[in-house]
Amino acid sequence: MKVLFISNDPTIFDVSSESRARMHAYASAIGELHIVSAAPAAARKFQEGGLFLHPIHAWKLFRVHTLAKRAHALILEHGIEVVSAQDPFEHGLAALRAVRGTSARLHVQVHTDFLSPWFVRSGNWRSPAIRMPFLNRYRRRIADEVLPQAHGIRVVSERIRASLVERYGSHIALPSVIPVAVDANVPEPVRLPTHPAFTFALISVGRLEPEKRIEDILAALALVTKQYPTVGLFIVGEGRERARLERMTRSLDLTSKVVFLGNRPGARALMGSAQAFIQASAYEGYGRTLIEAALAKVPIITTDVGIVGEVFKGYEEILAAPVGDPTALSLAIVGLIEDNAVRQELPVRAEAAARAHLASVGDLPLRVAADIASAVHYDKV
Questions:
Q1: What pTM does this model have?
Q2: Which long-range contacts (CB under 8 A, 24 or more apart) does 344-348 make?
Q3: 213 and 175 in a common domain
Q4: What pLDDT score does 132 carry?
């Protein structure tokens, strides 16, 4: 089978990256895999075995047009049978334009819970207001155009599949649920930086972007430290919101309670040294860090997003709170501080749930390849 991915992952051009290794695995399962993607300026065409990389260099304003034009040419040149878009938004639109006038089928991957109300909502009366990207409203409209014309749809969680079926019904191909890859091997724990003021350390790992709602964690911490002043927070990650989060930390008088660690290659190894992992995401398609935290055997506090309810059950394996509710997050933190039995039992159950889930996933490259192949035979009504 000859397949073209339309991607936005420049790390695939790094020979040592996990993404490159994953694409090689996909190519082996598919047969011949071409990938067109935005890339660093130094990136050049690459071919090894059945994997072909085609970089493009274009401003964001012209990227959809450039991706579509290059993909269309590759379809004709190589006899591509299926074009798979990384998302139903800009890349989905580029893929839709690329297959027009050809016999190639359209396959779309949905990694984001874009039908969550929090995809466009900035906050509520209980939480800080966070400016969500205006483009998100436009992206929903693009998805409304792209998904009904797809011959195959892959989603990464049951939550996303249910939302698509509710919105589009029989107007779309029935989505297949295929999770994302997570390494089940657990690195040796690495000690968090010494902070003598912390007796109970929380850790948050992820991009510092609006949808992660780190502001809610800070607001929750401000409530908790009034009663438990030695609780602290380590934030691992970088992003556009860092300066804003640092200002909020100062305004809440939490400077001595919060440590920004920036990007850390060994973030997973740090998790096991914390007393609890916490995330307050507005939405998640899957939630890889939840699996990683469970494998690290650390108690988990999270909002009800992604695979919560599917892989992890609230109050049995994790503590789950509504999105945009710092008070609920603060109560979960206090619950872990005050209840040693819960702090001991939840990680054991969460790890078991995570390993059972990973064992059920099977061979991801083969599953993805089979799902893409099914698009060739799908007949739209």
A1: 0.93
A2: 346/299, 346/300, 346/317, 346/318, 346/319, 347/294, 347/297, 347/298, 347/299, 347/300, 348/297
A3: no
A4: 87
